[in-house]
Amino acid sequence: MSPSSSPSLSLQPEPPEKEVNLRKGSSGLADEINFEDFLTIMSYFRPIDTTMDEEQVQLCRKEKLRFLFHMYDSDSDGRITLEEYRNVVEELLSGNPHIEKESARSIADGAMMEAASVCVGQMEPDQVYEGITFDDFLKIWQGIDIETKMHVRFLNMETIALCH
């Protein structure tokens, strides 16, 4: 069976019907995922099909951003808090020996302040920014070409002899 004849492996699958929970292990992240979950995750990274109309491209973009949003929203409450954002930034930068944890926190704090200014505008001194909602997240990513930044180029399996 070719990948394009299987609904779960097609080049442009419908948005996944289920969310994959990558935050279920004792460390806060999944210790392992099964193959079906792997395929679901990879489906978010499919390149844009050149035959898609503008509405389909926008739907694909929104699904990629929703996946990315859920990577930050660790408690799945629909809001990325400063603490959640700090955790992701610290994890991403933890492999860099030149960036200390306090520097990573400062980077996260600055980015969250920038997000607040984009989403809320000028805040009062006593006003607290509760966190980034998905609508805020869409505003932040507006004008950024995520379609070319968040994809994986897959090989055309029909042109490759499969090993048996």
UniProtKB/TrEMBL annotation:
Its main location: other. It is found in: Cell projection, Lamellipodium; Cell projection, Ruffle membrane; Cytoplasm; Membrane. Residues 1-12 have a biased composition (Low complexity). One of its GO terms (cellular component) is cytoplasm. InterPro entries: CHP3, EF-hand-dom_pair, EF_Hand_1_Ca_BS, EF_hand_dom. Residues 1-25 are annotated as: Disordered. It comes from the Eukaryota. Residues 60-95 form the EF-hand domain. It is a lipid-anchor. Keywords: Calcium, Cell membrane, Cell projection, Cytoplasm, Differentiation, Lipoprotein, Membrane, Metal-binding, Myristate, Nucleus, Protein kinase inhibitor. One of its GO terms (biological process) is cell differentiation. GO terms for molecular function: calcium ion binding; protein kinase inhibitor activity. Belongs to the calcineurin regulatory subunit family. CHP subfamily. This is Calcineurin B homologous protein 3.
